[in-house]
Design a protein that fits this description.
Layout: H1 2-42, H2 50-77, H3 92-118, H4 126-148, H5 157-196, H6 218-251, H7 273-296, H8 301-335, H9 346-375, H10 386-409, H11 415-418, E1 427-428, E2 431-432, H12 439-443, H13 487-525, H14 530-533, H15 536-541, H16 543-574
Antiparallel strand pairs: 1-2
GO biological process, one term: inner ear morphogenesis
GO molecular function: proton channel activity
Membrane topology: Multi-pass membrane protein
Length: 575
């Protein structure tokens, strides 16, 4: 009987694993083909134009739209069926975040449509079809993720695996296209800035993909062309968030989940005032630094050097504060004795892997800068600030990753479920005294509220009984000595006070780091990139090799900050 019962599970798991491998290989090949096409367009390969790349992306989006429509229709017909849900996936704050990025992405698409209309005489029709298709794709995908991000698919599993993985890699290709387009624009500006820093030996050849015709409305064309590049950072974050949520959905296909109560962890501003105030100060100062940097850089050699020095000093100060906050949080964790939750959780596992994986991008840039400072023969004054900055970037990510990963793996306290307030009533000449029983009494089950029995809370044995029938009340015996709490009560309340203080400190640290990561996301996302403008790395490694390294590593560095902010928001809710 045991063998017969065991064979179906073995037989069922084999095709399921087979489908997972096949679908993942399909997705990887889909992505590699698109990646090669994107690269060919970027280097102006013979016979490859932007219309070929956009046609490929449009085809992928249309296939995903058909799959999502089929899934939504099938879900509507099976609305009454009870489905398993992954309570850890698709948190509400994550859905709100992706919705915000999606709204800004729709504005970007409208700018692209306006740009195409103004240059319609010399642009391919695919450049007009692409933003329209992308806008429809964005609207339907956000609706799909709001309604089905938590689903654990148990039917049509093989087909659904291919549909979901297709969606994952479609979003990754759209992310790659956005990163490349934005990077090419940043690179053109960077080449012009290097002249002001005295690096005249670098050949300035702008990689221009501008239309070869005049705009019908000059003012509108300028607004559209400039506005597009300020909106790209939000489009990039939208697609990477969508791909991660869809990847969790793919990992959950066919998964068996344990049904247990999930504690809701709403975000509350109460108790995190200090962390929010310091974080907002950092955020405000960072925005000011970015504005001044973008105004000053490239104007003259002196102004460019001052802008770089200002950026490095501000970043060093912020990173030092973040390192200190992270160390304090880790020390608090070392003082606590709480077990870790090692249950299977695809969303949590992906969060940890993304933190470490994307941190490697900024680590690569930091080690490149450190090596350039050591090996360079000439050192302008502003480049010396790059050394402590690069070292602190490496250390801060080490500490922050440890804090976040341990936080999301720590089991939540269940004190709030165990401690319940009971009403103890004593009658003394018509007066009523409401008290709270000790945790020990409640935990042992001696506070039975349903039958009117209440625990003895004090050494004086003050016990009372509440008569639900109303009217007659008994007066219980009372010790003549003063009312004193038991030693166990004092011990519990003392421990509870210490625990609350630790939690308050941790919540303030998480709130502070959350705002700091948002602050550090802003500079590289909006063009404040000293790795481009420093100039020292280009001399040591060569212009083209260093630019390739920066263009490969920078997107991961930018994503790390946004992903860290999202993880820290979850930590704040959970603490």
């Amino acid at each position: 009987m045991e063998k017969a019962g065991g064979s179906p599970s073995l037989g069922g798991s084999y095709p399921q694993k087979n489908a997972e491998i096949l679908s993942s290989q399909y997705g990887i090949n889909l992505f590699l083909a698109g990646l090669l096409l994107t690269f060919a367009w970027a280097v102006h390969a013979v016979g490859i134009s932007k219309s070929h790349l956009l046609s490929y992306l449009i085809t992928l989006m249309l296939i995903q739209l058909l799959w999502m429509l089929w899934y939504l229709c099938r879900s509507c017909t099976q609305r009454r069926l009870i489905r398993d849900k992954d309570t850890h996936a698709g948190a509400r704050w994550l859905k709100c975040g992706i919705t915000l990025f999606a709204v800004i992405t729709l504005i970007l698409d409208s700018f692209k449509i306006g740009y195409y209309i103004d240059f319609s005489n010399c642009l391919s029709p695919t450049e007009g079809i692409f933003p329209v298709t992308h806008a429809v794709h964005t609207i339907l995908q956000v609706h799909f993720l709001w309604c089905h991000a938590k689903d654990i698919i148990q039917s049509f599993k093989t087909l659904e695996r291919f549909g979901v993985i297709h969606s994952v890699f479609t979003n990754l290709l759209l992310w790659t296209n956005g990163v490349l387009t934005e990077s090419k624009h940043q690179l053109n500006e960077h080449k012009e800035r290097l002249i002001t820093l005295g690096f005249g030996n670098i050949t300035i050849v702008l990689d221009d993909h501008a239309p070869q015709c005049n705009c019908t409305t000059t003012t509108l064309c300028s607004i559209f062309s400039q506005g597009i590049y300020y909106l790209y950072p939000f489009n990039i974050e939208y697609h990477i968030l969508a791909s991660t949520m869809l990847y969790v959905l793919w990992k959950n296909i066919g998964r068996k989940v344990e049904h247990h109560q999930q504690h809701k962890t709403p975000f509350k501003f109460h108790g995190i005032t200090i962390g929010m105030v310091f974080g907002l100060i950092v955020l405000t100062s960072t925005i000011a630094i970015v504005v001044v940097y973008l105004i000053q850089i490239g104007r003259s050699k002196i102004k460019s050097e001052l802008a770089l020095t200002m950026f490095y000093l501000h970043a060093i100060f912020v990173l030092a504060l973040m390192c200190t906050a992270g160390i304090v949080a880790l020390l608090i964790y070392r003082l606590e004795d709480r077990s870790l939750d090692n249950s299977k959780n695809p969303a949590r596992k992906l969060d940890a892997e993304l933190l470490v994986g994307t941190a490697a991008g900024s680590w690569l840039l930091s080690w490149g800068s450190i090596l350039a400072i050591i090996c360079a023969q000439a050192h302008p004054k502003y480049t010396w600030y790059n050394l402590p900055y690069s070292v602190l970037v490496i250390i801060e990510k080490y500490i922050q990753n440890l804090f976040i990963i341990e936080s999301i793996h720590r089991e939540q306290e269940k004190v709030n479920d165990d401690i319940k307030t009971l009403r103890i009533v004593t009658i003394s000449r018509g007066s009523t005294l409401s008290l709270t029983p000790s945790y020990k009494e409640i935990y042992n089950g001696r506070a039975a509220h349903d039958n009117g029995e209440v625990p003895c809370l004090f050494k004086g044995s003050i016990c009372g009984r509440e008569n639900d029938g109303g009217g007659a009340k008994e007066e219980m015996s009372q010790d003549k000595s003063s009312v004193l709490h038991s030693a166990s009560d004092f011990s519990f309340y003392s421990r509870n006070s210490v625990t609350n203080n630790k939690r308050r400190i941790l919540k303030n640290i998480a709130a502070f780091l959350f705002l700091c990561n948002l602050s550090l996301w802003i500079p590289p996302a909006f063009g404040c990139r000293p790795e481009y403008d420093n100039g020292l790395e280009e001399i040591v490694f060569g212009f083209e090799p260093w630019i390739i390294v920066v263009n490969l590593a920078m997107p991961f560095s930018i994503f790390y900050r946004m992903h860290s902010a999202a993880s820290l928001f979850e930590v704040n809710c959970k603490t």
